[in-house]
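Problem 3 from the worked examples.
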Amino acid sequence: MADASYTTPAEEYDTQLGDYFALLKPRVMSLVVFTALVGLLAAPVPVHPVIAFSSILFVAIGAGASGALNMWWDADIDAVMRRTAKRPIPSGRVPAGEALSLGLALSGLSVMMLGLSANLLAAGLLAFTIFFYAVIYSMWLKRSTPQNIVIGGAAGAFPPVIGWVVATGSFSVEAWLMFALIFMWTPPHFWALALFMKSDYDDADVPMLTVTHGRRATRAHVLGYTLPLVLLAVGTGFTAIGGPLYLAAAVILNAMFLKGAFDIWRRDETQAEADAYRVEKKFFRLSLWYLFAHFGMILIEAMLRPFGMGGW
């Protein structure tokens, strides 16, 4: 169980503006903004630039709110993990209560303003996304099951659907294809991270797959999830949001991704630790470029369609 009353070690706070910004998880926010923008621009309905800009801004604020709520709840485990110990709350730069207040305030603001600038369906989906990440994933799944990142990955997969709904006011197969792409990408991406950061999750008593089932099983799961991901990613090239440029890029990217997953799966556990980190970190870094590249090609195909060049 999380210790929601966690207090930072500092007796006095010297909070800077940048510390509040760090609470919003700007790196995660950048992915949310990009995929939401792709979802909006890939939709077959044009959106006024002012509405598009304001909608993406409020989606970004909602993503930041989720990050602040997550950091508030996870402050106790962040303090014992090397990767997160320097975050604003465990490092003593921001009081936990202020992070909670910021997260709640930004949540309400983002949902209300998205409803006013776009439509109520998009606002409702943003509200559900914030709830899913902060409550379902952070407060429940993360500390209770090794399937935490599998189910919880849905939170990160909703932004392109929100962008699509902003434009169209409804759901569609294409929006859920983009959702599925992120959803299936999330487990191998985070399990690769867990493989070379295993001690962090051990120390924090977080039931990541590496902790509950071991490294060998985690490697098999990385490959197991990569196989359907590859089929989904390449198959998307033949849909309304794909096209020849997307397909060509997807074939190359997925060949590289599949090879990386296979290299992780076949790695000998007696191999030198430095070599293991090299293989796992290489795959993790590739996974970052993998998702950005796929959505970048979806965006390019969408931008070329008005000129009769994108799509099939």
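Problem 4, a separate protein:
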Amino acid sequence: MALNYSVSLRPNPHDKEAAPKAYATAQTNGELTLKQLGRRIAAQTTVSRADVAAVLTATVDNLLEALTEGKQVDFGELGKFRLQIMSTGTDSLSGFTAAHITGVNIQYIPGADLKTIFGMLEFQPVASRAAQAAALRAEKEGKVVEDLLKNTENPNTNPEEPGV
């Protein structure tokens, strides 16, 4: 299975003067909702979709409760979850207070099976969302791909004067 990606130029947020560099961005192709996940699990087991939804909801509730208690939550091959604190630095240990804490994130560490799967992924380049939207607009206007390429290869080309 291949993971779709597009490439775009992005500036360096730490060096505003640096030239933008090309970076890959994973392109999603939909979403698996809780309802859909419940249906899939119910179809694969002897548990009803309602029971699956109840278990998943309780799992999330217990995950959040354990994290706020300062625990790391280990879901086996799925991976581990723990809280990560963001803060501003101070010059000394005695100068640091809770007021320097700026936020909290959930840190996820994938399990061994997921790490293996990630290592075997293939990557498939696709057009960016912006390029897809431009192509759709052009198609609605009756333009063809060759017209779009002419404008990107030589922006000064006048379509009514070939070869210019």
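Solution to problem 4. The first strand starts at residue 2 and ends at 10. The chain is about 35% helix and 25% strand.
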